[in-house]
C-alpha cells in the first residue's frame, strides 16, 4: 500500500475521533472500518510483493537449472574422454613396468607409442561458473527441491573437488618427478633409437610405474562424478515434467 494512502486513512481516523458530532460508538465503527482498510491494503500489498518475488525466484531457478543441465552434459563429455585417457595410462604403465621387470626389450614402435603416457597430463576443468555465481549471490535457496539442491552441492563441493585433488597429485608426479627423471637419463640417438628399455629396468622408474594404481582411483572418481551428474539431470527433467 502506498505511503500516502496510509497517511490519508490515518488522517481520516483522526478526524473521526475528533468529530464532536458523533458518539463514541459511531466513531469506533468508522475507525474500525478505516483500520480494516489499512490492514487489508497492507496485507494485500505484502502478498502481491511476495508473489512477484516467488515468480522471480522460480524464473531464476529455471534459468539456472536449464543452464546447469547444459554444463553437466558438457562436463560428462569431457569426463568420459579424461577417463579413457587415464585408462590408457593404466594399461601402458602396467605393460611398461612388466617389461622392465622381465628385462624384455620392446620394439621402438611400441616405445614411441607408449612413451607419451609417461608425461602427458590430463586434468578436469569443470564448467562451474554458473554454480559459483549462484552460490556467491546467496541464492542457492531458489532451488526448491531439497534432494536436487543437496546433490548439486555434493557434486561441486565434494565429488568434483576430490577428483581434482587426485588428478593434481598425478599431474605433480608426472611433471615434478617422472619428467625430470626422464630428462636426466633419456638418450635419443640421431637414428631415433633410445635407451628407454634400460630406463624401464631402473628401480626408481619401476616405483614410478606402480602409481598406475592412482590412475585407477582417478577413473573411479570420474565415474562417480558422471553418475552424480546424470542423477541431477534426471531430477531436473522430472521437475519440469519433460527434458528441458
Structural account:
There is one protein chain. The chain is an all-alpha fold and 244 residues long. It folds into two domains: 44 residues; 177 residues, no CATH class. It is built from nine helices and no strands. Helix 1 packs antiparallel against helix 2, helix 2 runs antiparallel to helix 9 and helix 6 runs antiparallel to helix 9. It is rod-shaped and about 100 Å long.
Identify the notable features of this structure and list them briefly.
single chain, 244 residues, mainly alpha, 9 helices
Q: Topology, please?
A:
Elements: H1 3-18, H2 24-101, H3 108-114, H4 116-119, H5 129-136, H6 146-185, H7 196-200, H8 203-209, H9 212-239
